[in-house]
């Protein structure tokens, strides 16, 4: 029987796991063994959606159909692994674009059935948290996680592996969505987060006023729509401010809001560690500010490297491996879900 600290430590799945990710605009496959990335292939669709200033769901699903087989082949080949060597297949089953998700889910089911390999469904956002495990190993619990992606901004309490309690979430736009919309208003390219991140370095945030979201409210929720409106208003001024100053002010306001709420939760709940994940976790200012605040609180902060922050299948394989190690298996009736509650990372929404 395991006891003490050992009982807290999750079992690690020893065999190679194939991860498949098609929830949005990246067609991705990876092979992960234990917590080691043996291969990770990401075929980006940014060129396809760029001219529309955002992801077109129908085009995304079609492109996944065209690319997925080649992407999986490449992931297996780079890892030097045959299908027969796999210990399981992990696939993102939500949340995301249903048509896009369905391509990956159908492929994973077919492969699992044909090769006789166990199948497990993974919550995409849980995957973002597990990007940390690929570089740092299993995290201590209880943990506090901030997941900031293109469609979600969730602050989570993780009392133990596989269990999540939502402490706060955005009431309107997600942080990444706010970056993308603000960038579009500024005439910058898609995705907007990296563009604003880069341009902010040349700007002065104090030259453009920004409101403090939910300033009079306690709690852990977020709101970004007021910041987006402030960007639009600033750009309508005559003469207009420098775009770099608008970018710097907007980024500073988004990061301050994210950091303030997260620090409040960390102070209240004293987690064993703080985990950051999702595309916006690649933002330099957010990483720096959260690092210094975590230092001040004396709580270790885990950050994935930027290539594991944005969508990839290695994080899905890793989260799936932990679920496989706990004995979870998905059946062929597994669906693809636009929304997937946190309590239930692998199954059907309740
Ligand atoms: O997690 P992700 O790759 O896809 C989703 O699950 O949505 O996140 C994509 C989001 C986009 O909104 C993108 O603008 C944002 O992450 N993003 C960034 C940065 N890199 C990507 N936002 C701010 N700063 C960045 N460096
Ligand atoms: Zn994502």
Q: How many individual helices? A: 12
**What is the CATH architecture assignment of the largest domain?**
2-Layer Sandwich
Fold-level CATH name of the largest domain: Nucleotidyltransferase, domain 5
What proportion of the residues form beta strands (DSSP E)? 15-25%
| Order of H and E elements | HEEEHHEHEHEEEHHHHEHEHH
Q: Please name the fourth-level CATH homologous superfamily of the largest domain.
A: ATPase, nucleotide binding domain
Write a short abstract of this structure.
The chain has 350 residues and is α/β, with parallel strands linked by helices. It is built from 12 helices and 10 strands.
Q: Can you put this structure into words, describing what you see?
A:
- The chain has 350 residues and is α/β, with parallel strands linked by helices.
- It has 2 domains: 6-130 and 312-325, Nucleotidyltransferase, domain 5; 141-306, 2-Layer Sandwich (Nucleotidyltransferase, domain 5).
- 43% of the residues lie in helices and 17% in strands.
- It is built from 12 helices and 10 strands.
- It has helices at residues 4-8, 46-49, 57-79, 98-115, 124-136, 175-185, 192-200, 225-235, 243-269, 284-297, 306-309, 314-325; strands at residues 16-21, 26-33, 36-44, 88-94, 119-123, 143-148, 153-158, 165-169, 273-277, 301-302.
- The strands form 2 sheets. Strands 3-2-1-4-5 form a 5-stranded mixed beta sheet, with helices on both faces. A 5-stranded mixed beta sheet has the order 8-7-6-9-10, sandwiched between helices.
- A hairpin with a 4-residue loop joins strand 1 and strand 2 (26-33).
- The longest helix is centred in the last third of the chain and has 27 residues, at 243-269.
- It is globular.
- Mean pLDDT is 94; it is low at 1-5 and 344-350.
- It binds 5'-O-[(R)-(carboxyoxy)(hydroxy)phosphoryl]adenosine and zinc ion (ZN).
- Residues 24, 149-151, 176, 179-180, 191-194, 197, 278-280, 282-283, 310-311 line the site of 5'-O-[(R)-(carboxyoxy)(hydroxy)phosphoryl]adenosine.
């Amino acid at each position: 029987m395991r006891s003490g600290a050992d009982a807290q430590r999750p079992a690690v799945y020893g065999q190679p796991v194939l991860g498949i990710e098609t929830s949005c605009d990246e067609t991705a496959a990876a092979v992960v063994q234990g917590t080691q990335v043996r291969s990770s292939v990401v075929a980006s669709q940014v060129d396809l959606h760029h001219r529309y200033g955002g992801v077109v769901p129908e085009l995304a699903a079609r492109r996944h159909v065209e690319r997925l087989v080649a992407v999986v082949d490449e992931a297996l080949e780079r890892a030097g692994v045959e299908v027969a060597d796999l210990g399981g297949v992990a696939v993102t089953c939500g949340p995301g674009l249903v048509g896009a998700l369905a391509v990956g889910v159908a492929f994973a089911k077919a492969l699992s059935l044909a090769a006789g390999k166990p199948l497990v469904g993974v919550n995409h956002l849980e995957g973002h948290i597990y990007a940390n495990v690929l570089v740092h190993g299993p995290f201590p619990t209880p943990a506090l996680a901030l997941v900031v992606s293109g469609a979600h901004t969730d602050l989570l309490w993780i009392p133990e592996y596989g269990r999540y309690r939502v402490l706060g979430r955005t009431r309107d736009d997600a942080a990444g969505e706010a970056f993308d919309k603000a960038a579009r208003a500024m005439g910058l390219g898609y995705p907007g987060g990296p563009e604003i991140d880069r341009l902010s370095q040349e700007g002065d945030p104090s030259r453009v006023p920004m409101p403090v979201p939910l300033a009079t409210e306690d709690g852990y929720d977020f709101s970004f729509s007021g910041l987006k409106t402030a960007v639009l208003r600033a750009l309508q001024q005559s003469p207009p401010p420098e775009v770099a100053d608008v970018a710097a002010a907007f980024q500073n306001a988004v990061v301050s809001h994210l950091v303030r709420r997260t620090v409040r939760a960390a102070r209240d709940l004293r987690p064993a560690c703080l985990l950051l994940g999702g595309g916006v976790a690649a933002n330099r200012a957010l990483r720096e500010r959260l690092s210094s605040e975590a230092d001040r609180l004396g709580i270790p902060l885990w950050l994935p490297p930027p290539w594991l922050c944005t969508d990839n299948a290695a994080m899905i394989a890793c989260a799936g491996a932990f679920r496989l190690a706990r004995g979870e298996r998905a059946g062929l009736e597994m669906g693809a879900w636009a929304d997937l509650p946190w309590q239930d990372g692998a199954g059907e929404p309740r």
